[in-house]
Design a protein that fits this description.
With about 375 residues, the protein is an alpha+beta fold. The protein is built from nine helices and 17 strands.
Length: about 375
């Protein structure tokens, strides 16, 4: 999903953590990283994958936000290991919506296990789903042993993999973000603060998750959205192995602020805007517009936007049938004459095959050329 950090990027600030990464979601660019591929305990950042599967179940109708789930004895006991639990006793019945808020705002382990059982029938089956999802995304360094982030020897992920999971959650299920944003929720009449301290300090931050294990230290995935010069940007930072809850928040804030201040965002094309119109052979239409369904955005070091140049490459001849959204070209982007990014372009319209006569005539024309 994210392009590697380019050699000409600004120097990354010092970050007091074992590993970190900063991603620009709109441009799919990695802005800074250190030890981003080192496997480390993900702690409650595990719940980002749990949340992804829960929102997937909501979208498919397997779960409904207003249905009730029973907090099993297994789920209630898991809650004993966390700072906060939502169920007062085993076999309590709680709405899915409330369980999600407890998982996202408070890192409540009992809520996470109850949701896992609600989605998959058992925690073991849910963890299998988590690992299959990670494998389908190519996250080979991630291996889940549980759904809530409890420390286990082989329960590991990396800053890079966790940033990918976070980006997929934000992009695939935008409705998830309001569950992460509350500064507090009330449990049994007592207000409980969000574990993400940045929500209290930076109005542009709207998620995501914080965590801690004795072996892995303090960890956080933070995401922020700011509009600069009329262009909206979203950044995701991952900090692993900080020394305290205050340090993980401070280092995450440092990364986010640097990402916004050290770079400019350049919109090359609007969503659905054709980059070019290409000749199509053997189709019902002789041309097809090529572009991207979302805006084509590039991030560059501050003040260097005028150095951007683009060059399009595509197969020739381009043959029907073409599906809408099919990759048909590549936009090579350079900065100051150096390679910067390569972005696939899609057919913005479908082009079905022509009838037999049209195909024959085009075949003759291609032969003459």
């Amino acid at each position: 999903m994210f392009a590697p950090r380019a050699a000409a990027m600004p120097a990354v600030p010092e970050v007091a953590a074992r590993a970190f990464i900063l991603q620009d979601v709109g441009s799919r660019q990695t802005l800074g990283e250190r030890q981003a591929d080192q496997p480390l305990p993900p702690a409650s950042l595990t719940k980002l994958m749990s949340a992804y599967l829960v929102f997937q179940a909501l979208e498919s109708g397997k779960l409904k936000s207003d249905q009730s789930l029973t907090v099993s004895d297994k789920a209630w006991r898991a809650g004993l290991n966390g700072a906060v639990r939502i169920a007062a006793a085993p076999n309590a019945t709680l709405r899915v919506d409330d369980l999600i808020r407890a998982m996202t705002v408070l890192n409540a382990n009992d809520a996470t296990i109850a949701l896992a059982e609600g989605v998959a029938g058992s925690v073991d089956a849910f963890v299998d789903m988590m690992n299959r999802q990670a494998q389908s995304w190519g996250l080979t360094a991630t291996r889940f042993q549980n759904a809530d982030g409890t420390a286990e020897r082989q329960h590991l992920s990396t800053a890079r993999d966790l940033s990918y999971i976070a980006a997929r959650l934000v992009l695939d299920f935008p409705s998830a973000l309001p569950y992460y944003a509350p500064k507090s929720i009330t449990v049994e009449g007592v207000p409980q603060p969000n574990r993400n301290l940045l929500l209290l300090r930076d109005p542009s931050v709207d998620g995501l998750q914080a965590g801690y294990t004795e072996s892995g230290g303090y960890a956080q995935v933070a995401t922020s959205r700011r509009t600069i010069a009329g262009v909206e940007r979203r950044l995701i930072s991952v900090v692993l192995g900080a020394n305290s809850s205050e340090a993980r928040a401070g280092e995450s804030q440092k990364l986010l602020n640097w990402g916004y201040s050290a770079f400019d965002v350049v919109k090359l094309f609007d969503a659905g805007q054709p980059v070019t119109t290409a000749k199509v052979w053997k189709g019902r239409s002789s041309t097809v517009p090529i572009g991207r369904p979302e805006p084509l955005i590039v991030v560059v070091p501050r003040g260097q936007g005028k150095l951007l140049k683009t060059q399009l490459t595509r197969p020739d001849p381009l043959m029907a049938p073409l599906l809408k959204g099919q990759n048909v070209a590549t936009l090579q982007i350079t900065l100051g004459g150096q390679p910067w990014q390569s972005r696939p372009l899609q057919a913005l319209e479908a082009v079905p095959s022509a009838g037999w006569l049209g195909r024959v005539l085009d075949a003759i024309r291609l032969g003459i050329q």
